[in-house]
């Protein structure tokens, strides 16, 4: 199965570089390029790609607002936000808008390719340089204007799983912690996402913080 990608960046040279990296892989294909956020939204609606690589700073409509529009449209496309700016406010805004991942543009080509594959699968993805800082310091101090999804429909075990997702544990680590099989944990994760109406694992991390299931670590 080939993963279809749209590249959204206002710099043509950057788009060309990403296209060369992506199209060199047998399982990836760039199906469209956008020079601003509005065009990115339009291409996503028309092409239904698996992943959009979305720059933050773009004309007409910026990457954060474009991400919000894509998420709110009900599209199954996942957005991987890329920026040269290691700014926590951008990360939080992207997550609140519905991004499925956040990476800095100075990554190696292999890291970009892996990021696209991970994002398409729905796995949580944040650059290691920003992950713990964002989760511990910013998600709980910058609440989403919209209320988080209700947890009433979750079973006790599913709440446990959501809490551990919020701690950025992998399925294998959750399985070890709860003494369950990885297959069982995967089923619980799927149920949590479905019941809460969440797009992917990273949005579950945000939900766990919003509900106070995970508390920021003390500095």
UniProtKB/TrEMBL annotation:
Domain of life: Bacteria
PROSITE patterns: HTH_LUXR_2, RESPONSE_REGULATORY
Residue positions, PTM 4-aspartylphosphate: 55
Alphabetical keyword list: DNA-binding, Phosphoprotein, Transcription, Transcription regulation
Domain HTH luxR-type as annotated: residue spans: 147-212
Domain spans labelled Response regulatory: 4-120
PANTHER family assigned to the protein according to its UniProt record, in alphabetical order: TRANSCRIPTIONAL REGULATORY PROTEIN NARL-RELATED, TWO-COMPONENT RESPONSE REGULATOR
Name of the protein described by the UniProt record: Response regulator transcription factor
Native organism taxonomy: Bacteria, Bacillati, Actinomycetota, Actinomycetes, Kitasatosporales
């Amino acid at each position: 199965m080939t993963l279809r990608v749209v590249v959204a960046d206002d710099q043509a040279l950057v788009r060309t570089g990403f296209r060369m990296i992506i199209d060199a892989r047998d399982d990836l294909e760039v199906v469209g390029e956008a020079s601003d956020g509005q065009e990115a939204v339009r291409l996503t609606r028309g092409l239904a790609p698996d992943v959009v690589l979305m720059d933050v700073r773009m004309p007409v409509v910026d990457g954060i607002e474009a991400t919000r529009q894509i998420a709110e449209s009900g599209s199954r496309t996942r957005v991987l936000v890329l920026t040269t700016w290691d700014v926590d406010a951008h990360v939080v805004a992207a997550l609140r808008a519905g991004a499925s991942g956040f990476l800095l543009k100075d990554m190696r080509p292999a890291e970009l390719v892996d990021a696209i594959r991970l994002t398409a699968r729905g796995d949580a993805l944040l650059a290691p340089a920003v992950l713990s800082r964002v989760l511990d310091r910013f998600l709980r101090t910058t609440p989403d204007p919209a209320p988080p999804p209700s947890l009433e429909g979750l079973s006790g075990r599913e709440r446990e799983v959501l809490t551990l997702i919020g701690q950025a544990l992998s399925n294998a680590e959750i399985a070890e912690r709860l003494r369950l099989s990885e297959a069982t944990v995967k089923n619980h994760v799927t149920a949590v996402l479905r019941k809460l109406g969440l797009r992917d694992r990273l949005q579950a991390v945000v939900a766990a913080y919003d509900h106070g299931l995970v508390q920021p670590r003390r500095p």
